[in-house]
Design a protein that fits this description.
By secondary structure, the chain is mostly helical. Helix 5 runs antiparallel to helix 6. It starts with a helix and ends with a helix. About 30% of the residues are buried. The mean pLDDT is about 85.
Length: about 110
């Protein structure tokens, strides 16, 4: 579930943060096509996925990943004025590491 979990927050981040480039860029179309419907669908599918693959403790995974994406988006907004395709890619990788650490913490395993 890690790849799905880490990518689930992308729609949320893209919905909240603007595309900073004035012209060009491959991500512009992606940013203009995300609405609240896509965000909600992504969130609920992720919650169902995480609950299907584990215990009730996994209920915290999707909201935690969405909070991660909020923080990552705020960092990108402060540094470059928004999110680009590159920052989304970096966020996906960082989100996977965050998800692994979170799963280990929830399950009580030591790092």
């Amino acid at each position: 579930i890690l790849p799905a979990l880490s990518r689930s927050g992308v729609s949320f981040a893209v919905y909240l943060f603007k595309y900073p480039r004035k012209k060009g860029g491959l991500g512009r179309d992606f940013f203009s096509s995300i609405g609240i419907t896509q965000v909600l669908i992504s969130f609920f599918i992720t919650v169902i996925f995480t609950l299907e693959k584990g215990t009730y403790k996994n209920l915290f995974l999707a909201p935690a990943v969405f909070i991660f994406w909020l923080i990552w988006g705020l960092i990108c907004k402060k540094k470059i004025g928004g999110m680009t395709g590159d920052t989304i890619g970096a966020g996906i990788e960082l989100s996977e590491v965050f998800s692994i650490a979170l799963i280990l913490a929830i399950s009580g395993l030591k790092f």
